[in-house]
Amino acid sequence: xxxxxxxxxxxxxxxxxxxxxxxxxxxxxxxxxxxxxxxxxxxxxxxxxxxxxxxxxxxxxxxxxxxxxxxxxxxxxxxxxxxxxxxxxxxxxxxxxxxxxxxxxxxxxxxxxxxxxxxxxxxxxxxxxxxxxxxxxxxxxxxx
Length: 144
Fold this sequence. Notes:
By secondary structure, the chain is α+β, with helices and mostly antiparallel strands. The protein is built from 3 helices and 6 strands.
């Protein structure tokens, strides 16, 4: 499992929780719901990152044990642009502006382009929170 898959899975997990999806492990199996909130592209992306999502959820439920070799406290670590995953989603971006008329639909717009998503998406013509993107202007919310 690559570091980029783990980073993408972390972003995906945060976005799924933010939009109200219940993500958990049940007997080692990944459970995501409610089903009516999942579109076919979401399911494909979740399946792609399933092993990394399972690892993250398992780590969340494991006791917090820090290595004695950790020399930099987590709160002191700085985000570097080269650490940003190559594949991101609109919902994790500071520039994502949710629709104010029908926010439950999940469609929004990009604050950089003014309307649709930046180029580099995988075929989605609108800014969906979970739509996978390659975006040079992506900025994580809260700088994380």
